Amino acid sequence: MLKKRLLAAAFLILLLLASTGTALAIKAFLTTAEIVPGVYIDDVYLGGLNVAEAQAALEQRAQMVDKKEMKLLLADKTVRISRSDIGIEVDLEQTLNAALAIGHTGNLWEQLRQRYQVKKEGHTLGLVFRVDEERLKFFLGRLAEQVDEPARDAYFSLSEGNKLVASPEKTGRALDIEAAADILTAAATSGEGSVTLPVRQITPRTLTQLEKWGVRDIVGIFSTRFDLAAQDRNHNIKLGAEILNGYLIEPGQIFAFNEVVGPREAKRGYREAPVIVGDRLVPDIGGGICQVSSTLYNAALLSGLQPIERRNHSLPVSYIELGRDATLSYGAIDLRFKNTRPEPVMICTRIDGNRLSIAILGTPRGEQVQILTTIEEEIPFPVVYEEDPELPPEADVIQEEGKPGYKVTVTRIIRKNGEIALYEVLSRDTYQPQPEIHLVGPLEQEPELEREQD
Description:
The chain is α+β, with helices and mostly antiparallel strands. The chain has helices at 2-30, 51-67, 92-101, 108-121, 133-147, 177-190, 207-213, 231-244, 257-261, 289-302, and strands at residues 39-41, 44-45, 69-74, 77-82, 88-90, 123-125, 129-131, 155-158, 164-167, 172-175, 194-196, 199-202, 217-225, 248-249, 254-256, 272-277, 280-285, 306-309, 336-338, 345-352, 355-362, 367-379, 383-387, 396-400, 405-416, 419-431, 436-440. It folds into four domains: 26-132, no CATH class; 136-209, no CATH class; 214-365, no CATH class; 366-442, Single Sheet (Resuscitation-promoting factor rpfb fold). The strands form ten sheets. A four-stranded antiparallel beta sheet has the order 13-21-20-14. Helix 2 (51-67) packs across helix 3. The model is unreliable at 5-25 (pLDDT under 50).
């Protein structure tokens, strides 16, 4: 009995060892670094090849695919490129990894079953591509430069005699870069030879819309004059006025000069011209732009719009009445007003010779606007004496004329049908006096008396 049990145990051990050895042999067979029979990449047969052999078999195909021409259709343009031009190329490593995974995934029996099926029926994979997103977006950005056309909103300009001249709208177009990247990637990786990229239409503001909204007449206009000899200053005035021309302000919208016109910088075309700093004129980039803001401020007042932010200069300026100026400092001091009218209004600018005119266009409502400036106090200017050793003794020369300062109050009266509809104090401003500076020579020294000795 004992002998039989020992023989049975020995048999089971031998059977276990045999099965284990078979499993190990099968596992070793299944994990070999060869592509299983029946696997294709496109129409290239790779069955039985190791990685190096499979790579050699695919390299020529990959190069052909990378260099194959694609035709891009967009708007009225046709562009021919290769995949490698736009950063989409065959990834041989990932392609071979996908081929090697066939018949080498899962447990032993799953791998055996997959191998049998692939060998019997075949299995075709596509090439795997890698996409350089940065390079693709760069290409599409350059392409957009050739395709994009900015839309132009309809607007009005002032002509001679303050007549309105309409400039019609122009429809624009723009390449949709995000959508184009997705479409182009899908087409390049699927092997398409021709693809249409999305170009969206940009619809501008039209003359018909302006007419419908009631933007058709001048509701307020104001003009100032400048010195034609100050060329750099005048250049800045023209630049600022051009940016404002045609700007539309919606009902309830607050217009901010600095936001619309932007920073006054040399790289944006502005030049150096005198600006007020403290009680002095000093050269700085963008000098003269305050004449544009001051002219616009008065046009807005005469149109019945509501001032939100405005500050006077520290000194009186020559081109406009006291209390009617609006100084600026980008990032610190702004001109802001609100469109309180029920319709949109448009800013319209014109420069004729040495005259800057700014109009607000909208729908006239029979209102009469009056702006009154009252000088509350004149501030005497101080007199400053500075010694100049170059002058003769006791000489007195006026280097700079003194100018008084002022305290002023500005009010606005709006009448409708002859009746006062609004009476408001707009501002109470103080302008500093400018000192009168005298250069004087040194004082004469009295001669010393001789001392007599006793």
